[in-house]
Structure formats: structure tokens, C-alpha cells
Amino acid sequence: MSKRRFDDTVDNGISNPWERKRFRALEKRLQGLRIDPLDASNVASTSQASGDSPSPERRLSIALRYPDGKRQIAELEVDTKVERLFQIIHAHGVSPSMVVLIKQFPKTVISLEDSQKTLAELGITTSEALFVEEK
């Protein structure tokens, strides 16, 4: 019996096996950008590096919705720079210079010029859905 990974059991909402394979390849590329919440060794090393324990109110999930209808979830902290979101978008195969991020309420347009601001500075302090739209 083979050991199943967590994302195999929930299958991330992707039923097409080719899309699932593509999603896993993207996940591997983004491994350094996201901490797996089920991996205790990552949590321990993060808390030791920062000197404090990670608090749940500092973590948030950003759902990126792409123009082609695909969706991606990024687990980030509120003090993460927007540049990280554009890196994730670029890893998805979309050029960051050709898109803007739209926050629904209050309606906010986030562009590449905002890349050095933190999510908190842009008013993103809770889990949020951001729409990736072409300029």
C-alpha cells in the first residue's frame, strides 16, 4: 500500500488528472513560498527563526483567481510583501507586468508598482480573494 499525500486525498478540487499533475508541479516550484500547515518541522523552524510563535491572526489565505478561470490558494503572513504574490503569479505562467490584482471590497487595484508594500499596508489583513486581471 503506498502512502498517500494530503493533497491526494482532497485532490485540491481538481478532477482532471492532467491539471492535477500540473498543479503538483507548480506546488513543487512554490515550495519555498509556502509553509505546509501539516508539517510540524516547518512550523518549528519558522518560529525559531523569528523568535516568537506563529500566531494564527498573522496568517491568511489569498485565493488568486486567474482570467482563465483557474484558482490558486497562497498561505501568507500579513507582513508579506505584494512582490510575493506577483512571484506566485509568474510561476503560474502569467507575466506580472501584464496584470493587476483586484480586491473586491473595498475595491482596490494592486499593480506591480505596489510590490514593495505589505499586504497589511494595502488593507489585506484577513483571508481574501484577489482577481488577476489583464491590463
TrEMBL record:
SUPFAM superfamilies: Ubiquitin-like. This is UBX domain-containing protein. It comes from Mesorhabditis belari. Residues 55-132 form the UBX domain. It comes from the Eukaryota. GO terms for molecular function: ubiquitin binding.
